[in-house]
Design a protein that fits this description.
The chain has a domain of 106 residues: Pnp Oxidase, Chain A (Roll). The protein is mainly beta. The model has no long low-confidence stretch (mean pLDDT 89). The chain starts with 19 loop residues before the first strand and ends with a strand. The strands form two sheets. Strands 1, 2, 3, 6, 7, 8, 9 and 10 form an eight-stranded antiparallel beta sheet that branches. The chain has a two-stranded antiparallel sheet with strand order 4-5. The protein contains one helix and ten strands. The chain is 4% helix and 46% strand.
């Protein structure tokens, strides 16, 4: 009898990365790709003068958050990116929370990234080619002030 996979453990295989959703405030927006969900801590190297070891001690320093890049298809009369970007004035912009969720096969969140105080720092419109056959895709780069992760 063939194994239908029903007896497998849910922790035997990693999650697929193609089923996800993005919430901007309370609006769900469909994206083709999300990247840049990373965090980094800068290193402080220190050595005091009377240390018998001729090497530095490495300590954690300031946290550094990379930008998040999101790509989506271009749709007629959809200017959400540009409307948000055009609100940037001298040192002011509407900052919003983003929620990015990796979903299981039933559409339930299994891992959720909460992005704090997000705002657009760069928008790239699609490239245009007269002999192209692919959909038009635009890109937005988001700056933020930190990511927290929740597991369901």
């Amino acid at each position: 009898m063939a194994d239908d996979g029903s007896a497998q453990s849910t922790s035997a295989w990693p999650m697929a990365k193609f089923y996800f959703k993005v919430m901007w405030d309370s609006n769900e927006i469909a994206f083709q790709e999300v990247s840049g969900l990373d965090a980094e801590t800068q290193i402080i190297e220190y050595r005091h003068g009377n240390s018998p070891v001729f090497a530095t001690v490495k300590m954690p320093g300031i946290a550094k958050n990379g930008n998040i890049t999101m790509k989506k298809g271009v749709f007629k009369s959809d200017n959400k990116y540009w409307d948000w970007y055009n609100k940037i004035k001298l040192n002011t912009i509407k900052r919003i929370p983003l929620t990015i969720s990796l979903l299981d096969e039933a559409g339930k969140p299994t891992m959720t990234w909460k992005v704090l105080n997000a705002w657009p720092t760069k928008i790239t419109a699609t490239d245009l080619k007269s002999d192209g056959n692919e959909p038009a895709v635009e890109t937005i780069e988001i700056a933020h002030e930190g990511i927290t992760i929740e597991n369901s």
